[in-house]
Specification:
single chain, about 525 residues, alpha/beta, Rossmann fold, Isoleucyl-tRNA Synthetase, Domain 1, 2 domains, 19 helices, binds ligand ME8
Length: about 525
Amino acid sequence: MKSFFVTTPIYYLNGEPHLGHYYATTIADVLARYNRKFADGAFFLTGTDEHGQKVAEAAKKNNVTPQEYTDTLSKVWENTWKDLGISYDYFIRTTNPTHKALCQLVIQKLRDSDDIYPQKYEALYCVGAESFVTQSELREGGLCPDHDEKPQIVLEKNYFFRLSNYKAKVLELIENNTIQISPESRRNEAIELLKNPEVGDFSVTREKVSWGIPVPFDTEQTLYVWIDALFNYMSGILAKKDIDINSLSLDEILDTIKDIWPPDLHIIGKDILKFHAVYWPAFLLALGVPEENLPKKILVTGFFLSDGRKMSKSIGNVIVPQDIIEYFNGITDGLGNDILRYVILREMRIGNDGDITKEKIIGIYESELVNKFGNTFSRVLGMAKKYGMKFRDLDIHHGGRHNPLQVDEDASVNEVEINFDLDSIKRYQSWMINYQIYEAIHTINRMLLSIGQEIEFYKPWELYKNGNTEKLEALMRNWLESLHQIVDVIDPIMPSTAKLMERLLAGENIHIFPRLEK
Ligand code: ME8
């Protein structure tokens, strides 16, 4: 059985992780955890993009060699994800020897098949974006659209990739959804790019950038950092499996990773759509990778803004997740990271831009985590305690919640909107299978709301007063089972909270989301 293969972009090492990187990585983490728990397992790959001009310049600024610089900083990134409980299966560095060997095999194969050719040319290059830009893309003042930099004029001999030979095929694969792109607006953008005659053959090597993977057939050249970067999605699996690729063909290589390859989901920011939706499939096709072995889906996130602009290391307007996490760690029992995860996934529908302020986070914390999650748990568990019923004693079977109608056949369900039934879990799963975490969270909120509505409708305090124990027990069993199911569905999104909730259900006297002091 193939596991769900999910990737984040590999991040440039010209700074430390900020909220934008945390966002993409958290989405991947939630989906990996979901698939491990509810489906056939996951392989979750993340890492760092270590070559190229931008990283070389950052190293120089710090008076160290690029290798020393990347060794130190990649550890910072890896440790940040570890500290945040990000459940990646492998952390790929593009300075990894297996990665380098794969890239050299790739460029050699492209040369042998005449998919690349040498050419002299002059163009504009933005180091911040590690990308060639055209005059028409520049902002006012001749600046790069995403960075406060004037592009450099580059005059070099490079090798060019014959993208023009593959554009029609990639277009067909996107139009017939062999490669899915979400949201729709980004799919349309990719289609536009593929129809645009200006998007043509492009340079895949650099002559004057020494910090890169050497081109095996031309000692003057290194690989363009983006070609190098994209192949992390393949080399990451090979490195994890510790496969020596030196005597293998690409077909044999793919055969060794077929329990994971192809990628089910690439999570990327909207700034790197062209590389993933146009260049990446074109390279794979040029290498002879069959259609069914191409990436299945590209999920394109919007930007976190700060002061109305993209939060960016190059611009320097970043918010780091740790500041927010520490604040909430001070209030809760170490749930700061979970709270931030919840808020960013609940607040930003994937694809939209957004900003997160401390006020916004506090608002959502109070209205949902305190008032819905915390409140429902303490209400149900408080009643169970008062009525002398323990979770254990009620013979609760996982997933065996009864429909409230079976509890009281006379009850008029029309009088109250009862949404929490066995379908809620299915609804949650269908959102998650479609990577709609925002909607999945909404479903969980509806489940909590329904428990509250049922309590108001059945008035357990009256049943207790009237000595209607049988009905009271049946209801309490349902509510406790509902809480158990909430723990299951919240686990991929807020794993530490789920653990605390389990302890609560086991009878420990703890408080998950305390109210903030005014
Ligand atoms: O582009 N809001 O790396 P990178 C949301 N190395 N997401 C953001 C963000 C923001 N303000 N800023 C960054 C690169 N990101 C290449 C990728 S992949 C083969 C190579 C996220 O460090 C977003 O997903 O500049 C973006 O695509 C990613 O960080 C990588 O940014």
